Amino acid sequence: MATLYVSPHLDDFRSLLALVAAEYCPSSRPSILTEDPPASLRSRSRPTLLLGAKEGGCVLSGASAVSWYLASKGGKAGAEAKQQSQVWQWLSFADNELTPVACAVVFPLMGMTGLDKKIQQNSRAEVMRVLKVLDQALEPRTFLVGESVTLADMAVAMAVLLPFKYVLEPSDRKVLTNVTRWFTTCINQPEFLKVLGKISLCEKMVPVTAKVNPAESLLGPPKTEAQLKKEAKKKEKLEKFQQKKEMEAKKKMQPVTEKKAKPEKKELGVITYDIPTPSGEKKDVVSPLPDSYSPQYVEAAWYPWWEKQGFFKPEYGRTSIGEHNPRGMFMMCIPPPNVTGSLHLGHALTNAIQDTLTRWHRMRGETTLWNPGCDHAGIATQVVVEKKLMREKGMSRHDLGREKFIQEVWKWKNEKGDRIYHQLRKLGSSLDWDRACFTMDPKLSYAVQEAFIRMHDEGVIYRSKRLVNWSCSLNSAISDIEVDKKELSGRTLLPVPGYKEKVEFGVLVSFAYKVEGSASDEEVIVATTRIETMLGDTAVAVHPADARYRHLKGKTVLHPFCDRKMPVVFDDFVDMSFGTGAVKITPAHDHNDYEVGVRHNLAFINILDENGLLINVPPPFLGMKRFDARKAVLQALKERGQFKDVKDNPMVVPVCSRSKDIVEPLMKPQWYVSCADMGKQAADAVREGRLRIVPDHHLKTWFNWMDNIRDWCISRQLWWGHRIPAYFVTVSDGSVEPGEDMDGHYWVSGRSEDEAREKAAKRFNVPADNISLRQDDDVLDTWFSSGIFPFSIFGWPNETEDLKVFYPGTLLETGHDILFFWVARMVMMGLKLTGKLPFEEVYLHAVVRDAHGRKMSKSLGNVIDPLDVITGIALEGLHAQLTDSNLDPLEVEKAKQGQKADYPNGIPECGTDALRFALCAYTSQGRDINLDVNRILGYRHFCNKLWNAVKFAMRTLGDNFVPTEKAQLCGEESVSDRWILSRLSAAVALCDAAFKTYDFPALTTAIYNFWLYELCDVYLESVKPVFIKAKEDSSCERPALVCRQTLYTCLEVGLRLLSPLMPFVAEELYQRLPRRRPQSDPPSICVTPYPDAEEFCWQCEEVDRDMDFIMAVVKTIRSLRSDYKLTKTAADCYLQCTDSATVSLVQKYSLQIQTLSYSQAVIPLTAPQAAPEGCAVAIASDRCTVNLMLKGLIDVEKEVAKLEGKRAELEKQIEKLSEKISKSDYKEKVPEKVQEQDAEKLRQSQTELEKVNEAADNFRKMM
């Protein structure tokens, strides 16, 4: 049996880690001893694990080794290789990132090391920084690796145990919500509880009693706080008076000079590409690169060249699309944007993600097609053109007539339709433009017609009269997605098209129906939010179990305005506890009432016509507008004494998103698709794994919709769209009874009128000459043509080569808000009409909202054209766009205010690459994206950093540099070379994994970190001395040559990693690099192979771990330099190391430390050696303390004087704030938010004062 030696100390987190890991392997749990291991084991540290004879009898020492062994035994070290690597990664994070800073801040509190408040404060800030990184990683996860506790959770939890117990106050934990949630989950696991018991989290950082210096006791009794304050004030006044006198004296001595003008803010440079280049020809790449990055320069000329070269076509690089490609095929169709104007940032997100994926698949060598297209957008387009007609010509579509109106729409489409394609090109979208299509094109229109006829002939499409969402303004049924749900908290007046005065909503009106034949004049009280609909009531419903109404079984109530007798029906749908427990039933104007009407065979009385005027009602209501009738009915009930009450009622009002009209449920004969069977097939496809939906939290929504799907109304009372190929049949034969519009038996469909006539003649068994036909005026719902888009674009129903090769597609990528409206319908119709799923996988991205979390809306002024972010626009330009839009004048003014608040200086030029990168960086699976346009600018600065890095690197490589034919190690690489190649390999692996899992934030982070924090900030800086030495000494040329090859590999591979996300800057810089094989390498980066993890397999954990330690040392030195304002002065640095291994490591990397920290000399010291006096001290890790020599480098007296002034200022602030907070009525009178701000200001001032005092004390020691 194994024996585990651990420390008895309750806060020895290393021993605790081993004990927790042991709890997870109950079958082979070791015996526990709280004592030092025997000397014979030659292990001085705890925990130590002595394995039994069965297990090999060896000794394991150290928390990592012991816990790994125990966790592996308990199956908690990762289920497979990938998870094991992730666990090891978190172990490294705990050891290298968390433990050093945690120890630095906790150990002084526990009395284990001396207290230096400055070091402690720096360490505390560093703890928070590291924990914020962890917090971000934990945001989408319950546990660090996989779906249950692993060694990763154990190790990191133990590393943060002491900070949670002694350092992290409630305000800190509030910032670290995800870490706190995860930590609480871990420590409450039974295995953790058994070892740790119940943990109390820190309420306030444990105070430390300062040691009294014996010399101070000789100075007499300490002064009181009041005395000290008085002295400080007196001193402050004297100092200010003295400074004033000195300033006046200086002024008298100085000659009078002119006032210098303030330097203007540095604007972002705009450099244009002015070399004449015919469209489609390759851009000049011989001229020198401009000094700085400019999007206008970089993005010029590349796209037409890419397009002309055919890089975006699946045929590129192969003899035919039909030939087998061992690397596979990738096909995706664009979610066709509406032709109604221009794209917004939501579309830009879709296209950034889709193009990034497309370019990645293309660079992987797959036969790749991303098919463009545009949607005719029935209602949206018709509304826009109708408004334009009315504004410009004062005409309605009815004034023009159907044919001329459709001509106007086509004319408008031809004028405006290209704008969307222009925007897509500007976004860098690598679409195959030769395959672009429009849903009203002949090819697609034929497919739509064919789909309708086949489904109608099969009985899947049928005619029925049911309730639909009706827009009186549009005179059309509309889909659910075109209905906005406006939530009201109570009585609200809303504007309604066609009404001068606003209309009242959000009230519940109660009134009474008299019971027929009641001697006591009995009445039943009901309530409604739409009082005008009582004119169409045909029953009153109560619950069967409601004792109050049992006596009314078989009774009727009387309508007050006509002789209608209405039955009292008993139905389970009634809520007995709501109101009086009695409900009015209007089957023709309410979805719930419709179902009751069907169940109880009630009369369906339609009281509204298509324009919202009252019909089938008695005078005086006949012909009234619906909301005028609302007032009239209320008044009439009052006059009859049957009105009871009106009160506020929270409710949801359905509003047409296109016309802003109030939507009415209306009984209309319409065309429907029977969805039950198709919905089941779509649900089964996902359940059986044939169709995958990512992220999987959308599965619940999918199954909920598919399992409870209702039939789909596909007819729209519009003129623009695919006219329904169905004909109403009239038979000139006495033996055939005339049919009704709602009777599907009298409707036939056909590809032509002749075909329809033949079908009708056959159905009614009469000669074709006896048949008269009337084609339905309605058009199909836009989603019907969108539903067959994945195969109609390839010529279905014709068996084309494109259809054979590219259908089914690979992926469908879109926003989660149209999962049902578009995705589900494509799946259903694909299975129905082709017998195949239209794609294998669905990736649903989040919905873009503005920086305030609001939905993008033109009336809010937050709909931003991607081109305005790319090229920049002034505030006046944004305002001008609103003036040219279809918004009402009031909405324009409101939108202008929104723009002014969000973009007071307009939108700066960010460029396409920065926009794409920002959108992908924001994309997290399953959440809405609150996109602040101003943050995109940060990624433009990243482009500039890339630009400068590549320019510097190219100068370093030199004109005669020739890269090796293959990227490989030569064996002579320096530690810096090996490290950057290890980081490059890690970036390649991270990018590969991120692409495969659609983890775009991980993708952008991996690339950003490699370029910015590893290549630019570390490697390029650390190798500068290598090249300088090579220039000075020719014998040092060999290391410089190896370094150049490494640098080239990093640039070339780094740009290939970046290319799918930032195609323009990647191409511009890549074209300037020499090629490994100039004769055979592809002409463009966009068709160059994407870096593969199998090729770049140089990741070395030991090198990474060593460099992590070195960078911790460098950051600590830099922090000290910053604290003491050593901006240009190099200082000697003494590094106190705990052991010889750390000394060796420091010596090995001394050049890197010296270069990166701008130190004069780096001197490692072993444990007994003391650093010289005059040093500033900071802890880099538990293995190394930094001592930075300051003596002789700074004017100590001047620095002390500065700090004294700062101290007086802070004391004044603290006194003022403390006075304010201590007032007796402060908590009652001051808002909570202001109280929080005051408390935070006080805490910050006190912390700053502590730092000032510590710094002053340190300086005095040097005097």
UniProtKB/TrEMBL annotation:
Reaction catalysis annotation: tRNA(Val) + L-valine + ATP = L-valyl-tRNA(Val) + AMP + diphosphate
GO biological process, one term: valyl-tRNA aminoacylation
Domain GST C-terminal span(s) in chain numbering: 80-208
Family as reported in the entry's similarity comment: Belongs to the class-I aminoacyl-tRNA synthetase family.
Assigned keywords, A-Z: Aminoacyl-tRNA synthetase, ATP-binding, Ligase, Nucleotide-binding, Protein biosynthesis
Gene3D superfamilies per UniProt: 1.20.1050.10, HUPs, Isoleucyl-tRNA Synthetase, Domain 1, Valyl-tRNA synthetase, C-terminal domain, Valyl/Leucyl/Isoleucyl-tRNA synthetase, editing domain
Organism: Tetraodon nigroviridis (Spotted green pufferfish)
Name of this protein: Valine--tRNA ligase
SUPFAM superfamilies in UniProt: Anticodon-binding domain of a subclass of class I aminoacyl-tRNA synthetases, GST C-terminal domain-like, Nucleotidylyl transferase, tRNA-binding arm, ValRS/IleRS/LeuRS editing domain
Region annotation (Disordered) ranges: 217-237, 242-261, 1224-1263
